[in-house]
Write a structure and sequence with these properties.
Helices cover 42% and strands 17% of the residues. Helix 3 runs antiparallel to helix 4 and helix 4 crosses helix 6. The chain is globular.
């Protein structure tokens, strides 16, 4: 349980221009982007490729960047859902078990998450692992206010 409230944001970068993406982060008061993607170096990532994103965040908004692979799904879980058009319920169940087994609540701190933003590619949080990470952590710690940007 946390003594103080933590404000945690989540956001996907698809369907956003670089201007929309960075303006949203800055206006929301995000201090750290926490990359939760399994693959953050593909050409499809555009302006959010790992090293480019780290540079842009610092230059445009004085925002820190960290990539935490323990917050990402495994390739097997992701492929089953994305490439094989799997069932969201099955994906959700497998991913929640994975992050529980990984004990992600021990891999991040409330200080890192406070005014942090969990980043992935999905435009909306509904069928996205970043929402599952945020909800899992809020159950473990309470006192987390999640805002999907």
């Amino acid at each position: 349980m946390l003594s103080q409230s933590v404000k945690l944001f989540t956001m996907g970068f698809t369907q956003k221009s670089a201007e929309q993406f960075f303006d949203t982060l800055i206006k929301s008061g995000v201090k750290t982007v926490i990359d939760t993607r399994l693959n953050n170096v593909s050409q499809l990532a555009g302006f959010t490729k790992k090293n480019d994103l780290k540079y842009f965040l610092k230059q445009v908004g004085a925002i820190d960047y960290v990539h935490i692979l323990d917050l990402a799904p495994t390739k097997d879980i992701l492929d089953e859902y994305k490439k094989n058009k799997g069932d969201w319920g099955v994906y959700e169940q497998k991913f929640l078990k994975l992050i529980s087994d990984r004990q992600i609540e021990k891999k991040v701190t409330p200080e890192l998450l406070n005014h942090g933003c969990l980043l992935c590619s999905e435009a909306k949080p509904h069928n996205c692992h970043r929402r599952l990470v945020a909800e899992y952590l809020s159950k473990k710690w309470e006192n987390i206010k999640v805002c999907h940007l």
